[in-house]
Design a protein that fits this description.
GO terms for molecular function: DNA-binding transcription factor activity; transcription cis-regulatory region binding. This protein is α/β, with parallel strands linked by helices. It contains 10 helices and 10 strands.
Length: about 300
Amino acid sequence: MLELKHLRTIQGLARFGSIAACAENLHITQSAISHQLKELEVRIGAQLFYRKTKPIKFTSQGQVVITLANSVLPQIAAAEKQLNQQELSSRFTLAIDCHSCFQWLLPTIKQFQKSFTALDVDLESGFHQHPLERLLAGEIDVMITSDVESRGDLHFLPLFGYELQLVMSNDHPLVALPSISPSDLTSQVLITYPVDKRRMDVYNLFLKPNNCEPLKWKKVDNTSTLLQMVSGGFGVAALPEWAVRTFENQELIATRPLGEGIRRHLYACVRLADKECEHIQAFVDMTRQMNSNHSVID
């Protein structure tokens, strides 16, 4: 008669006080909330709460269901957590959706492995389509991404912020400018990683809103090669600050902000049931500590 979705819905209604707030926090539509409540009332043959009351006032039958939800749902969450931790006790697979993340992620993983020697840690790229579906399917455990999606089955743990910069050779004409405008790139060869431009921040946040395109797109699949080509004057690139620091410190390249500055944030995306797993929390904490030179986000 009672399903978990009903228990989660009525618990959310009691916690957030209205159907609108409940729908927003559970990441489902108000009509879906109303449908579930009506369905449950039909099944139990009784009204759960009094309509048009602020705050919501529950009937005695509604209170019974709320008490059940508050008892059962934590037990289920604890069991899911335990089962997931047992299943993942020997495997921890990370994926990334940005090529340049290797620069900071590999040292972090090396340090992480010292603390969790029993884990078989693996790293793969998430450059293929639908990486979050692979996360939900259990094929990967953490997805490092800068794109947050509002959905109830995933949780995004904040890591740190960074700035996207334009990188060029030291003698490039654009070095004379204090910052770069989108139109400045219309005469430039823009060197990028081999991904569709619609997945690139420089396109989505800088060029596209201003109806600009570079003179030419040139794709390179390796950060070191990309930076050497930039240093050699074969084009310019838009990269996170961590990817260019070594070359910039050696005075092999120059950087300038894009417009007034493009700030992005990285997150560790995990399945909702895994967000409090010990090794995932440890990985997030270690990532923040080892990248404290960036701005950590709460």
